[in-house]
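@channel anyone free to eyeball this complex?
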Amino acid sequence: MNSSASTKERILTAAELLFAQRGFDGASLRQLTAAAGVNLAAVNYHFGSKDKLVEEVFRRRLDTLNTHRLAALSEVAGQPQTTLEDVLDAFIRPALALSSDGSGSLFMRVLARAFAEHDDTLRQFLSENYGHVMRQFTAEFARLLPKLSREELYWRIDLVTGALTHAMSGFGMIQRKSGVSESSHREQTIAHLVRFAAAGLSHP
Amino acid sequence: MNSSASTKERILTAAELLFAQRGFDGASLRQLTAAAGVNLAAVNYHFGSKDKLVEEVFRRRLDTLNTHRLAALSEVAGQPQTTLEDVLDAFIRPALALSSDGSGSLFMRVLARAFAEHDDTLRQFLSENYGHVMRQFTAEFARLLPKLSREELYWRIDLVTGALTHAMSGFGMIQRKSGVSESSHREQTIAHLVRFAAAGLSHP
DNA sequence: CGTATGCTCAAACGATCGTTTGATTCCCTG
DNA sequence: CAGGGAATCAAACGATCGTTTGAGCATACG
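replying in thread with the prediction:
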């Protein structure tokens, strides 16, 4: 099937699918390696352990996602004419671009699971490797919403994060009407999410 | 009968804690029964299986939660002077009352896990026992937001649901300042969530 | 050609899982 | 007080888990 791809890539792709469908505990290495068409021992050979494989699944997607997010943010951050919607667009658009890129949509489901799991090891891994992204966006939100107290801002960002994670984890299931192109459907979705988040962040 | 109810209750309480901490798959019946101080076989004796136990954990909380939500909704639904904030209060207040009631706060974490898991069996169970509540609230939202299309309304309700689930699942972790009573802290939290949800639902 | 190296393979490891069993204890009722 | 169903118990069941092993295969280099 995908015999052209490397063994590591096939494992990562199959892991992303099964982790999204059955969770990290629910997906066994035997199901996983069978779906990838590789030997059972290949996971421990190439990744060391199942936990390391989980981290690699995150790393592969988050590296590109955060690069795109920071690139988009750097184009609007600190500039006087920048609006709240611009910053939110920089945060949301790369995630939805990932969702529409082949199997990447499954990754948002995996990310939503990681949020629901309150596993300390996984949270620490995510915080260490990608906390700086949220910090940069938070700083820009604080600049654009100077009337909000720090506590109030954190509250609203947390609520927006929950809404966006919830929505984007189910994005693959939202059927677009026939006659509407993929890109225009995505643009509509981005507009929905950006307006909702802007209203939730900036309401009096 | 009384001693069996005690055993059942202790199992349910321990299950709620461990399901919130480690997930449905992650929490084993041996950890669970040890924490409850009962024999391993007690789960299968009283509930039939682990899956039935999971359903009972949901049923115990959702029965009272839904009753309180519908009771609060019936006091404001359909009346001309009712505001969007009133309906949201009827939805949010019972959930936070549950959260501050002893170990009930853990249940919101369990509920957040159930949302993240896309398990069909669990979703069907929740839909059967929970669906009519959301339908009644949705009807009232539609009445108060007549300018929104059906599709747009569903979008916003889904986003609000994600935000509230995310926030309330972490409610137990939010430290209230010293000198602030439990009830006033809860009132502040309710006010935060209601205003955020109202802004997200009703923005132009 | 010979051999070293990276990779794949079937097989087995010990641990833990949910569930079942059969004996034993408890408690209510006649 | 005696009998019987409900509840609890230790123990074991088969299945499945993540991981390890050591032999076998491939390709590249001296």
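from a first look: Chain B touches chain A through 35 residues (CB under 8 Å).
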